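Schema walk-through. Below, the input block comes first and the output block second. Nothing else is stored per chain. Lengths vary across the set, and this one has 166 residues.
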Amino acid sequence: MKRAIYPGSFDPWTNGHLDILRRALSVFDEVIIVVAGTNRKNPLFSPEERVSIISDVVKAEGLERVQVDYWSGLIMDYAKKHEAQCVVRGLRAASDFEYEFMMASMNKEILSEIETVFMMTSKNLFFVSSSMVKELYRYGGKIDSYVPKVVVQYLKSKIESKSKED
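--- output ---
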């Protein structure tokens, strides 16, 4: 069985992420979405919330052969532990390539038997990022075409509860 992991911060999950997942499922027998445990990006949602959001999206979309998990260590340790043959990474624009190339090169040094596959996001989604979605939503912009419906509900709830705290 060909198993791939699809790691990322996914804060929040976007239609670009969903696009990459759907295409990865056309290549691999199973895809494990791995919410990375990095605080480097100052996330809006906790790792547990991101796992719940993505799980709800996967269920709502009727996608099979997908697992959603959280990992705070090295992705290559996760890949080895879960017997993945490949790491899937999405690319939006040329600006993503340098970082992703360096990361894939480092991962290959760590665990040479696991390949990294880059998939370009569809042209109608290449400009969509989690950061852009959060910013747009905070300022009252429409995000419905950039994220699944489930994500809109989670964002609304999270942003409203944060404004009550402030």
